[in-house]
């Protein structure tokens, strides 16, 4: 490539509009089929655990408190998830879904990457039981 051609490219580039967007300040609308954070509806869950069996990254754990009364707590490890939506596709009862709005999940510490889903009283019971069994462990708090 000759110097003259390079100078021509440089001068054309100086007067063009930037191709990138100023991301935190300017946002494009998210696509409808974007796979973001996983959400769980405990009222529809039957405890079949198909979502756990089909998760390739072991990001989901279903803790059974009382199967007869359908009391389940789902532990979702966001940092392990590959966002493949395999769990959502295989859930027969539509209790799992992926958000297309919540996809920005960066954090400085590991603690917010462990999310507990379920009824509030069931999650609280599980966290209290975990702290009673191991007083040194610091389980993370459920999302607010």
Low-confidence stretches: none
Dominant shape: elongated
- CATH-scheme architecture: 2-Layer Sandwich
Question: How far apart lie the N and C ends?
Answer: 58 Å
Q: What is the spatial order of strands in the main beta sheet?
A: 2-3-5
The string of secondary-structure elements, in order, is HEHEEHEEH
CATH topology: Alpha-Beta Plaits
Number of helices: 4
Total separate domains? 1
User: Hey, roughly how much beta strand do the residues contain?
Assistant: 15-25%
Sketch the major β-sheet: 3 strands, antiparallel
CATH class: Alpha Beta
Number of strands: 5
Rg (C-alpha, Å) = 22 Å
Helical fraction: 25-40%
By secondary-structure content and strand pairing, the structural class works out as: alpha+beta
What integer is the average pLDDT?
82
Task: Name its key features.
single chain; 144 residues; alpha+beta; Alpha-Beta Plaits; three-stranded antiparallel beta sheet; two-stranded antiparallel ribbon; 4 helices; 5 strands; 17% strand
Could you give the topology of this structure?
Elements: H1 3-14, E1 38-40, H2 50-54, E2 60-66, E3 71-77, H3 86-90, E4 96-98, E5 114-118, H4 120-133
């Amino acid at each position: 490539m000759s110097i003259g051609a390079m100078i021509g490219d440089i001068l054309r580039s100086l007067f063009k509009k930037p191709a990138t967007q100023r991301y935190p300040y300017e946002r494009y609308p998210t696509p409808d089929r974007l796979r973001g954070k996983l959400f769980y509806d405990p009222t529809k869950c039957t405890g079949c655990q198909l979502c756990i069996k089909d998760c390739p990254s072991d990001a989901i754990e279903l803790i059974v408190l009382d199967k007869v009364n359908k009391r389940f707590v789902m532990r979702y490890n966001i940092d392990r998830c590959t966002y493949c939506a395999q769990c959502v596709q295989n859930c027969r009862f539509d209790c799992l879904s992926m958000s297309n709005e919540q996809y920005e999940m960066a954090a400085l510490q590991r603690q917010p990457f462990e999310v507990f889903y379920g009824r509030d009283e069931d999650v609280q019971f599980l966290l209290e039981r975990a702290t009673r069994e191991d007083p040194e462990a610091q389980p993370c708090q459920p999302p607010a």
